[in-house]
Amino acid sequence: MKAIFNKQLVWPFMFLSFGLLFFAIGSGLTYRQRAMEKQGIEAPGVVVALQENYDSDGSTYTPVVQFKTASGQNVEFVTSYSSRPPAYDVGEPVIVVYHSQEPEHAVIKGDGQLLHVIFMLVGGLIVSIGSYLVYSTIRDLTILSPEA
User: Residue 44: which region, alpha, beta or left (left: phi > 0; alpha: psi -120 to 50)?
Assistant: First the structure.
């Protein structure tokens, strides 16, 4: 009976694990972004170019941003988010957040928040469905079990 129990629970637990992974990724990205925005230094920046990225689905655009640190150092960085159509225009002003020790690892304030929320919502939905599947499978196995 134990082998049947394990086989019937494999897919519900995999579904639940997949949802937890999605939720964890969204939460981790949100935490990292908020920590950077809380601990970092804000500076005005400007989008100086759009880097075009090609793949089998077409092209996406990643902003290249330039800003000046509090110490006067000019820094240019490529953001980690790309989109189609471009989320920013060349010449568009943005607020940049950076750490004084690593200004080249800066981020655009608020960039990617929608993606983080989508990951958490999809993950939460999959976790809910996976939890129900695990619960109903265990319930069904308990009802069908000759030991009950």
Answer: beta
Q: Which residues does 96 contact at the CB level (< 8 Å), separation at least 6?
A: 42, 43, 44, 45, 65, 67, 106, 107, 108, 109
DSSP code for 89: -
Question: How far is residue 30's CA from residue 51's CA, in Å, rounded to a whole number?
Answer: 24
Tell whether the model's pLDDT for residue 148 goes beyond 90. no
Domain positions in the chain are 2-144
What is the Cα–Cα distance from 137 to 122, expressed in whole angstroms?
Answer: 22
Query: What's the pTM value of the predicted model, to 2 decimals?
Result: 0.72
Alpha carbons 36 and 40: distance in angstroms, whole number = 5
| pLDDT for 145 | 63
Q: What is the per-residue DSSP string for 29-44?
A: HHHHHHHHHHHSEEEE
